[in-house]
Amino acid sequence: MTIREHVEQWEKIYLSPYATLSMNSKGRDREEEPCDIRPIFQRDRDRIIHSKSFRRLKDKTQVFLSPEGDHYRTRLTHTLEVSQNARTIAKALQLNEELVEAIALGHDLGHTPFGHAGERALDEICPYGFHHNEQSVRTVDILEKNGEGLNLTWEVRDGIVNHQTKNMPSTLEGKVVRFSDKIAYTYHDMDDAIRAGILKRSDVPREIGEIVGYTPRERLNNFIHDIVTQSKGTNDVRMSEEVERAMKNLRSFMFDKVYSNPVAKGEEEKAVSLVKTLYEYYMNHTDELPKFFVELGLRGEPRELVVCDYISSMTDRFAISLYNELYVPKFWMG
Fold this sequence. Notes:
Elements lengths: L2 H12 L25 H10 L2 H5 L18 H19 L3 H10 L8 H11 L6 H12 L10 H8 L10 H24 L10 H7 L3 H16 L9 H19 L8 H17 L6 H8 L4 H10 L3 H12 L7
């Protein structure tokens, strides 16, 4: 018996009857020889961590565009916090931690530069629309490894595409990530806003604070404990009505005070304009796209999607540098 088979048997004995077992995966689009050491979801996690799109998350905006301080979250640190929250919940519920981690680490791979401002720009200008969850799956299916894709399992891809509020994943592990994403940005976006001086801890409305806490530590602790308490031993992942309502109210509070705050988001319209300008440029100059993206077009992918592929793969820094190269005059050095 291989090490992988031992691990699969351990999952069968130890994990919850509602967990997704590695041996029961629906598999990959392209069949592969199993690894003798790693179960199938662990291989997916490893592929995501070693991917270029994962490394680029370190230079993509979470909330604050190009913050001066070193301690503000980026899209990468957000992803790591989602993963940690999800693993804590999964361990407590005896669900498949490796599936949870793979979904969490891959859920934002298709995010644009400049966070949701960049996403909004592409969604407004591209006739196909643009949604980062769908782009994340497109990234792992088509864009990674020079067009080969990562060939991830059905369960991981399902969790990635359905991690947003309007969708529901097919596995409990996917539902864990869906909640963990909300918990992470509610928790850390407020922490960053306090660090930036936009909020004070005392600004948290009393009706919210009394239920989920007034400090980041209290809120994180209460959210996770509530999910574990409500979900343990059931075929579902859920919050109590009271705590879920408080989380929604806290999110509304963050939209009013932070996400639409002119101080915090003052540069967003510039970012939107930059992204739309790059889109229009490459729609008219597709021959100037990098070779890989030109080849995507030759394979029959619509030009609009290929341009979105290129722009969404950019980091904040690269997008600004490219814009400057294309549109900002250079001094003549004759």
